[in-house]
Design brief:
The chain is an alpha+beta fold. Helix content is about 25%, strand content about 35%. It has a 7-stranded mixed sheet, with helices on both faces. This is GNAT family protein.
Length: about 180
């Protein structure tokens, strides 16, 4: 199972937007990714800043696996960020997002020099909870009405991992 991670750019707009359209049923209620060219351009602008970093994951066959964002990176005494991610159909459930997320987590701790990553997940999103717990994240708490998604304030559980706790599964995943 081969997967690579890379930073999105203007050349990836068509593939990204097609993946979002193909994945509407999978993503509904969990996340609202960019779904128009204008929103994609804004997404690139946001993730071109020092505080945010985005990665796309691509399978060996060239299809997009998903998107992983490292948000609100704070350095200094905190050295922390929030992790957001979503898979694209038909690549969900094949272990590809786990591999890609592992590569991004390693990059967050090594390249971005973060100490802590937090993932906030809606309690009913069993697949996402399973993904982060399989990677070593621990449940830290519950945040009522935490994020506004798809027209509603949604409760989330807070999972976290520190650099000292991280043990990269599968080691080397190519990054472009």
């Amino acid at each position: 199972m081969t997967v690579e991670i890379f930073h999105p750019g203007p050349a990836h707009a068509s593939a990204f937007l097609a993946a979002v359209r193909r994945s509407e049923a999978l993503l509904a209620g969990w996340v609202s990714p960019p779904s128009t060219r204008e929103q994609y351009v804004e997404y690139l602008r946001r993730y071109g800043s020092d505080a945010h970093c985005s990665y796309l994951a691509r399978a060996g066959d060239g299809s997009l696996v998903g998107c992983i964002n490292v948000n609100h990176m704070v350095h200094g005494a905190l050295q922390s960020a929030y992790l957001g991610y979503y898979a694209f159909s038909p690549n969900q459930g094949r272990g590809l997002m786990k591999a890609a997320l592992g590569a991004v987590i390693s990059r967050a701790f090594e390249t971005h020099r973060l100490h802590r990553l937090e993932a906030n997940i809606q309690p009913a999103n069993a697949r996402s909870v399973g993904l982060v717990t399989a990677l070593g994240f621990r449940l830290e708490g519950y945040s009522p009405r935490y994020l506004y998604i798809d027209g509603q304030w949604r409760d989330h559980e807070r999972y976290a991992i520190t650099a000292e706790e991280w043990s990269a599964p599968g080691a080397s995943i190519p990054a472009v």
